[in-house]
Write a structure and sequence with these properties.
Helix 1 (10-20) crosses helix 2 (35-43), helix 9 crosses helix 12 (311-322) and helix 10 (218-231) runs parallel beside helix 12 (311-322). The chain has 20 helices and 20 strands. The chain is an alpha/beta fold and 520 residues long. The termini are far apart.
Length: 520
Amino acid sequence: MDIKPNQMNGAESLVHTLLNNGIDTCFANPGTSEMHFVAALDQIPGMRCILGLQENIVTGMADGFYRIAGKPACTLLHCGPGLANGLANLHNARRAGSGIVNIVGDQATYHRSFDAPLTADTDALARTVSTWVRTTCSSAAVGHDAAAAVQTARAHPGNVATLILPSDSSWDQGGVVAERLDPPTPPPLDPFSVEKAARILRSNTDVLILLAGSAVLAPSQELVWRIANATGAAVMAQYVNGKIARGQGRLKIDRIPYSPDAATEILKPFRHIILVGAKPPVSFFAYPRKPSTQYRDDAQFHVLTRPDQDGAEALLALVEALGAPPAPIPNPGPPSEVVKGAPTPEGLAQTVAALMPDNAIVSDESLSYGRSFYQYTYAAPQHDWLQLTGGAIGDGLPVATGAAVGAQGQRRVISLQADGSAMYSVQSLWTQARERLPNTTIILSNRKYNILIGEYKAVGATPGATAMNMLDLSNPDLDWVKIANGMGVEAARAATLDSCADLMRESFRHQEPFLIELVI
């Protein structure tokens, strides 16, 4: 690798190397061990630094940034406990296939043996969510290791890479700036897999093409529709996806349902399932006397691409193998209209679809209230829909914040956000206000963990007074208008869909963030 010697410390070589490798955004919550990195960021132009008030906000923002910008940002986290605070949204990011470079400060190499209070097994924590982990113990190696971290993060479909930086490797002189490393190309397609998929599609009528990753984006949708139109195969997406292109001109792709019974029923017709970046569908959780798998016992799976391969390339090869002619994507139907009256899941979904601006981004952590949103928003203007991918709640607000940064403030971001999970990462509102981001947050305020009430019943139990008290968010009620105002975000409460629609329209006219508490 071509590197250039410089008279600088390790932290300065780190910033220069990150910039050389295309990292221009840092989501940060720094501490003492990272002060030399902070100083280097202050002295070297080119890095946009965005403060999060808790580490799970920082990691969630980096996830949302990658989903929209298509390139990694770095995070700055303080020692093992700071990384631990951010693990939940790094778990979600890993499931989304998001590329992130974590810079985690650590005790100076000579100080670790004294077992100071913040000393932790940071390496072990990092490995729970990272594809690549390295501890850099000399200033001369910082640039080299940082370039390798970015290279890993940029590999398809996106990976979490964690660079642990003892403080003396930051402050010692002898830093070396590393040049840009190109990411590895995705593993090549298997021509036999393409040939087999074509044969299955030609000779069977009970075939499902199951999509995930890049296969649910707009270019892939055009290809998969040509295949489905030519062969009669069904097309679905897995239940959770980092980003799906939706709206007018996009393919109407249903997802496998969350409910095990509903998923089993919808998959019952298919004996052949072609996987394009997807995995065989299983239930989110185990339930008494129900199977973990959701497909029929005699189902046969055919892997067209693994998650680390290029789904769009594979679909193009399959189009060519089948000789599938171009075909216009069907119109998803007439646009929705604003619904009036008392809030319902269906009415809210139709209202959001009717009012969202062109090219909007939806960050969906609506949980149980929003399970029916999807089917009512197919005919909305073109937009990207971001989901909670790993099941660790608390990603909706920070993902929305990072998405707005990734879109450079040029796209409206709409958060459909359950109130209970919003409290996990409410500090995101402060960052939205500080950065003046175009975020509209709709808090679904039912003052309870409604999803857990449903799960309680699903495992065969009846919630009593003690259980309901643990699932209740009233006494006292959360006042979301005051919470948002305290974070610097303008807010208002709505009790009807009419009022919610008026507030949405008003929020879309301004660059600044706005929060709507919708009482449901």
